[in-house]
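Posting for a labmate who doesn't have an account.
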Amino acid sequence: MSDTIYALSSGRPPAAIAVMRVSGPGALYTARALAGRLPETRRAALRALRDGEGRLLDRALVLVFPGPDSATGEDLVELHLHGGRAVVAVVEQALAALGLRRAEAGEFTRRALVNGRIDLAQAEGLADLLAAETEAQRVQAIGAAEGMVSTLVRGWSERVFALSAEVEAALDFAEEDDVAVDLGDTGRAVAALRAEIEEVLARPAAERLRDGLRVVLAGPPNAGKSTLLNLLAGREAAIVSPVAGTTRDVIEVPVVGEGVAYVLADTAGLVVASADPIEAMGVERARAAAQVADIVVWLGDDAPPGEAVWVWARADAAGRGEPPEGVDVVTSSTQPGTIATLWRVIAARAAGLLPQEDRPSLNERQRALAGEAAAELVSEDDPLLLAERLRQARVLLARVTGADATEAMLDALFGRFCIGK
């Protein structure tokens, strides 16, 4: 990271303001070359930006953040330009002429990680925050970016360090009469820490919010599944026909309900057997979709299998009659309030399947490492074996926050970022 990079960190022009970031060992020199006298640290000041020939490029606000106390951990400068395309282009040309390089995707955040300003768990939270499309995703991601996961894991690591110190004392001073170390207490503390980690692992994974909960509409043919899918999605996503068996495959529609992402799935009508091979394949796929669903919405006159939400659909249809006892929701295409009621029932089911806002949740990578660490937290009668298990647990927990992150892992993570982040 001996070179100095630049990139537009605000939205694509034209815009009212365009924020150009410059980071690296030559950032302050670059700012002086363009703006002359620099303003006080962290104080915005209006400056005339000029190229090497003295030509006026723009009048912009300049902010200076000397390293290591900056977002990237190195000297950082922000140029708040007028947001026209030509202004941004000419300033970029001037920066390139001074020997700077355009930043790669996520490179500013990557430098923050390398320079110790954030750890890997926080960087993952930032990546999720940039990709957040729902309120629930935003809340979870900002918690991770602000260090909620990192604080949790560091607390575990500190406890493992303390336990390791106790075991090492027992090994080093086992023959000393004046040093008393009770490995029984240590073993109980190890078990308590393992139970705490396993309690966090039992919570819903962070990906549940990002990927969306799968809500599968299932039931017999011509039960109104496609119509209900369209009503839930608020658009004509599935073909609706009075002919039974219109839906042959699983139709998936991503939607957002009350700030939570869902994937609604319309499925073929379930029949006991079919002589039509295409219909039989659709039925098999419908059953497979229901098996992996987070929530099944059952549209049938008979009681649903399992814990499905039982919906009495098409209540406005002629001759439909009265719903059977035990139905959760009665819906009608002519009464929007019934669809809102169904969404509330779905949301109530979803609440127990999603991470809670005030509690840290781990992503797949973090869960795998924490799970391996918990597996090492087993009390051993032999202090040598216990010391080794604790050492392995320390290593695994350190990986959660990126102690040994590989270049390939970092490339994959920061490839999700925009250029100026």
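Reply:
Got it, the structure tokens are right above this. The first strand starts at residue 5 and ends at 8.
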